[in-house]
Design goal:
alpha+beta; Trna Endonuclease, Chain: A, domain 1; 2 domains; five-stranded mixed β-sheet; two-stranded antiparallel sheet; 4 helices; 7 strands
Amino acid sequence: MHDERSGQGRYGNRGGGGGGGGGYRRDNRGDRHDNRGTPLSELDPVLTDMSRRVIGCAIEVHKALGPGYALDVYTKALHQELTEQGIDYKSDHKLSVTYKDKEVGTINAGLFVGDRFIVELLARVGEVGSTERSALRAELRAADLELGLVINFGERRLKDGLVRVLNPDKLNALREERAEDEDDDDEYEDDDEYEDDDEDEDDEDGED
């Protein structure tokens, strides 16, 4: 049974409902996935490296402090560790929410890392639930970013409090862009082959 008594975090008292214990899982090849089944290999390597560095900083904080403190304690400690590691970030960064190209509101990202990656922090006992995931996914849509991370320092083992969240809209758009680029490359390669064939014919005519 999970204890939801502390309710600390940006999303209030929202214990481990739907979405399960999540975090990471591995397939038979060893690739890491989130619960949606998207491998990290599909993401920009710069982005995944950034997420690993942030997780490394969180691990250092959790090793030193352990669970049980208020969220503010972990937040300040993580800020200090990020700064020491030379990781650029903005705290409580404001994001605009638009509807039909008009701003209809704003939301705050807990940590906006390198202008590429959003991190939300919790400090309570219990799994990261669907509410926290949905809230972070909304932030990712507002910022037009692929990847975010929820870190719950309240877990006894930090790895049980790490949940990767993806923005399917952004990922689908990137896949479409890659597919278009591949189509363009294929068309260019076909043209090259056609030109090479012409050159071969000219050479043969010259020899005759």
